[in-house]
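Practice problem: predict the structure.
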Amino acid sequence: MLNNNNPLTLTDLVALWGAITGTVSLMIGIFTYFRDASKIKLEFKSGWQVKNSPQYDPNELYSSLTVSNIGRRPVTIVKAGYIFLKKNGGAILSDSMIYGSKELLEGKNVDFLLKEKDMDGLSEINYFVAYDAVGNTYKKFVSPIYSRFLYWLLHVTHVRRKTDVSPNN
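Answer:
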């Protein structure tokens, strides 16, 4: 190999060049993989009125869940909803079921509306969620981290147990 007495041979130079180009190619491949990964952003806003749409009552207040594709790859959103903080389960937003799957191309978004009076209250919601066609889950937490930790701790220590409802009772 490299020795002070022997000069670099052609084989040594080719091996060095191969190691350098191989490392650079690996770094570019890793960068491209993470750059092209699907990236979905969820944004929740409340207190909106919908005007000039026969589907929605203009006197009602609505909340909006916006699902945006900020990545480079198209993503198909199949449903959206929210998960409760203090109890098990959640709710599916009816707009996501009525209008079906939505393909989000690069830089596009879709809005899902729900009536605020039909919501259980923002303090009861842990996070909003969107599911894509391949099973990925995207979350937007709305509850404070300390309350999520408290209810997680209660759940793990089984202080807050799930009640069984059997048909025989």
